[in-house]
Amino acid sequence: MDFISRQEKLSVLLHSRGLDSLVVTSLANIFYLTGFRGSAGVAVAGSSGMSLWVDPRYTVQARAEAAGAEVHEVRAGLLEAAGRWLRKHGPRRIGYDESNLSCRGYENLRRAGGKRPSWSPAAGLVERLRAVKDSCETERIRQACRLTAEVFEEVVPEVRPGIKELDLAAELDYRMKRKGGEGPAFETIVASGRRAALPHARPTAKLLEKGDLVIFDLGVILHGYAADMTRTVYLGCAPARVRKLYQSVREAQERGIATLRPGAPAGSVDQAVRTLLKRRGLDRYFTHSTGHGVGIEIHEAPRLGRGEKARLSAGAVVTVEPGIYLEGAGGIRIEDTVLVGAGGAEILTPVSKGRWILG
Ligand SMILES: [Mn+2]
């Protein structure tokens, strides 16, 4: 991972904002900039490089993982320690991440940093860099997607009436780890029958039944990077009306993916999906946005929502995941993780979408 070039890009961004330093309090951002993956830490980025504060649980790990950063060990009060360092080293214009700092943390940081510097909210700067993946990152996401697809392909033959949602979710999670993944990137969704009408259903003790639509939404974390994929299967021989609904979601997803290219406004992807569903009279059942960036976090920039004006860059990795949810009846969602390449979209989760299970 090329941490130095990321730090340099951040330096340029800070300069353009009139900032000397940035206090980095999101662990995902700290990992992105330094390679450190502990569960607690505070970093300061500036023109002279990165400094990282950790507690004694993480000193050895931080020195190994964040080789390019100056690692400081403190027993408690990471923010206060960073604040004292800033007071001593004297940057005048300091940015902080108001989206990843508690009110108390902010007070402690400023008190320790003293009265001299000016403090400006600067959330989203590192996230903006993270929205464009470098080749090492796309390779990790590609591998995470491949592993996710493999796990799903292995478990699908076990999907039949009489199996518990929770047992299928446990099987998917277990296989993710057995294949070398760190674990699920989010709580694996297995939602059948009426429960498939809940976009973020948790798996329950419900048994799958013939005639159920079953939504599987899963993704592994591998080498620090996430994957995200959803497939919907029907238990039995699907009646024409279910096939028609499924086909509409599938076409909507294809429209969305076809819209992904460098320079396209993020909102245009959402619009393409929504327009197709509207034509089929289904847009009011599509209750969430079309997709989101995927990387170190399962949900990150860019957001593919209605009216989003940010333009997609080559190197963005996003999901395209239209769904329709019919209360009391069921739901259908199809989702891929997709790389926006210079020449167009590349689907990283190439699992069949034409699968119908006979119960
Ligand atoms: Mn998703």
- Major sheet: 6 strands, mixed
The radius of gyration is: 23 Å
Order of helices and strands: HEHEEHEHEHEHHHEEEEEEHHEEEEEEE
The structural class is alpha+beta
Ions, cofactors and other ligands present here are:
manganese (II) ion
Q: Estimate the strand proportion.
A: 15-25%
Which descriptor suits the 3D outline? elongated
Helix content: 25-40%
Taking pLDDT < 50 over at least 5 consecutive residues as the criterion, the unreliable ranges are none
Average pLDDT, rounded to a whole number, is: 96
For the secondary structure, the number of strands is 19
Tally of DSSP helical segments: 10
Terminal-residue CA separation: 47 Å
Strand order of the largest sheet: 4-3-2-1-5-6
Description:
With 359 residues, this protein is α+β, with helices and mostly antiparallel strands. The chain is built from ten helices and 19 strands. The longest helix has 21 residues. 45% of the residues are buried. The model has no long low-confidence stretch (mean pLDDT 96). Bound molecules: manganese (II) ion.
What's a quick, concise take on this entry?
The protein is α+β, with helices and mostly antiparallel strands.
Please tag this protein with its features:
binds manganese (II) ion; 359 residues; 35% helix; single chain; alpha+beta; three-stranded antiparallel β-sheet; 23% strand; 10 helices; 19 strands; six-stranded mixed β-sheet
